[in-house]
Amino acid sequence: EESTDNLASLHAKWADVLCDFSPLLTRFQESSFQAEVSAFVAQRAFDFAVACTDGSHPLLWTAYPQQYRELFEAQLQAVMAVSNLSDSDIVQLISFLQENIGDMVEHFDRSDVDTFVKALTCSEDYDVFLQVMFAEARGKLKCNGYILHEGTPAAVDG
Asked: What is the pLDDT of residues 14-31, one digit of tens each?
């Protein structure tokens, strides 16, 4: 009974935020934000067409993940400002949603929460960042008539 009471109090705490969860989720899917991310990636794509046969990465790449992360961080800050949530509130909300999907959170399914978590965390993973950049580099190289050879970063399928 204590866990049910605890769940009910958490649900009451998040009731207003849950009503606004869809707008929180869509903030990372907004066309203006997606255009900003696409522009960032497109502007730097050719830098990721460089093949390093020893597996190292050019020094130039080290600044880009932080800049990429800053785009997402700014969007998260906008989400938090609109919803009046703090960093710890976001962590608690995600935890609450992940634990209670299907119980007291009827309006959302696991994919809604997973999409939101992925949007919040994708910029923190260097490998995901590289996959995004390599995919864009491959596209740009192909559009410009380059022949991609196996083993070059831009030619590796993710």
From this structure: 666 666 566 677 787 788
Stretch (H or E) spanning 9 = helix 2-19
φ, ψ of residue 73 to 5 degrees: the values are -65, -40
Largest CA distance in the chain: 66
CA-based nearest residue to 29, from 79, 85, 83: 79
User: What is the number of H-type helices and E-type strands within the chain?
Assistant: 7, 0
pLDDT digits (tens, 9 = 90+) for 27-68: 877 889 889 999 999 999 888 887 778 888 888 888 899 999
Single pTM value for the model: 0.68
With residue 137 as reference, give the H or E element that holds it.
Answer: helix 126-143
